[in-house]
Specification:
The longest helix is centred in the C-terminal third of the chain and has 20 residues. A hairpin with an 8-residue loop joins strand 1 and strand 2. The protein is of the alpha+beta class. The protein is globular and about 35 Å long. Helix content is about 35%, strand content about 10%. The chain has a two-stranded antiparallel ribbon with strand order 1-2. This is Flagellar biosynthetic protein FlhB. InterPro entries: T3SS_substrate_exporter (IPR006135), T3SS_substrate_exporter_C (IPR029025). Keywords: Cell projection, Cilium, Flagellum.
Amino acid sequence: MTDDAPRKPLQQAVALAYDSGQPAPKVVAKGRGLVAEQIIHVAQEAGVAIHESKELVSLLMEVDLDQQIPPILYRTIAELLAWLYHIEAAQKSGLPLPPAPDTSIPLTEI
C-alpha cells in the first residue's frame, strides 16, 4: 500500500550557546525530524526565543557539535544575539517586541 499524501519536509534545528568568555557561540545541539522537534520543544519550554531561517540552519548543520560557529557566520549570529537581548529588554519593560533580523547570508560571503 502506498501513501500518496504529501510528506512534510524533514525539519531541522540547531541550538547555539554563547558565554561571554568564549570567542564565538558553539553548536550545542542539532538534528533532523524528531530530534529537531525535541530541540524546539525544549527551547520553548525553557522560554528560549526561536528564530526560523532554513538557510542559516542549513549552514549551521555543517558545524560539528561543541564546535564554534565559523567566522563567516559571526555577523549574522551577532545580529541574532542582539535581537534576543532586545526581546528580553522589551519583555521586561513591556515594550513591543522588535522585528526579527534578516538572516540571509549574501552569496559573496560564502
